[in-house]
Amino acid sequence: DTEVTQTPKHLVMGMTNKKSLKCEQHMGHRAMYWYKQKAKKPPELMFVYSYEKLSINESVPSRFSPECPNSSLLNLHLHALQPEDSALYLCASRTTWGTGELFFGEGSRLTVL
Amino acid sequence: DQQVKQNSPSLSVQEGRISILNCDYTNSMFDYFLWYKKYPAEGPTFLISISSIKDKNEDGRFTVFLNKSAKHLSLHIVPSQPGDSAVYFCAAIPYGGATNKLIFGTGTLLAVQP
Q: How far from chain centre, in Å, is Cα B69?
């Protein structure tokens, strides 16, 4: 199994809603990432978890709240988002050794109305 | 401050010919370099990587060359196929721990014409 699975694939939410994005991998990777990608731009790092602990927060607004409940799951809780937060949210994972290849999920397309 | 740059936003190549995608970097402290391919509305897919101690890595139709003195790497695709049409990102990982962030270039849109 070399997959990173993200749900939902598409999400539309209002600015007052609370929703969550989910990510799952069963490759035994102990580093997991959230990236945000806007159209025609490279992916931008948001958060990194290492061994289920938050190790990098790229100064992301608190309306985005990550959670890593176990070594296979990564969540991104969303609350009071702005329309400019509409983007493709990508989850990725990698081993904590070796060439550093990141395995990406297909992403969750978020639209904030 | 863009540490990894892809100066060509787009490239068009005939099917069967060679595609050469270029990437420049400014930081000498990168440990690994990677190339990713991305279709619209999908996550990036890993293609090939190269360690900073090597100057060439080959995998099937894909070859990556690293010129450390010029701080330049390139991806060669031979022969190019229409299915290769996608956005290609180069990326770099600084020396250090496993959770070091992958730094992406700005991407090059490759169009392979049948």
A: 18
The answer for A 66-105 residues in CB contact with B (under 8 A) is 88, 90, 92, 94-97, 99-105
For every residue of A70-109, DSSP letters joined together read ETTEEEEEEES--GGG-EEEEEEEE-SSTT-PPEE---EE
Instruction: Say whether residue B102 is in contact with chain A using an 8 A CB cutoff.
Output: yes
pLDDT digits 0-9 by tens, B33-55:
999 999 987 889 999 999 999 99
- The DSSP string of B93-113 is EESS-TTPPPEE---EEEEEE
Q: How far does CA A52 lie from the centroid of its chain?
A: 14
Q: What is the pLDDT of residues A29-50, one digit of tens each?
A: 999 999 999 988 889 999 999 9
Rg (CA), chain A: 13
Between chains, do A103 and B101 touch, taking CB under 8 Å as contact? no
| B14: its two tokens | 């005939």
pLDDT tens digits, residue range A62-109? 999 999 999 999 999 999 999 999 999 999 998 877 667 889 999 999
pLDDT cut 70: percent of chain A above it = 96
Q: How many residues does chain A have?
A: 113
Task: Flag if B43 and A56 touch (Cβ within 8 Å).
Answer: no
**pLDDT at residue A93 in the model:** 93
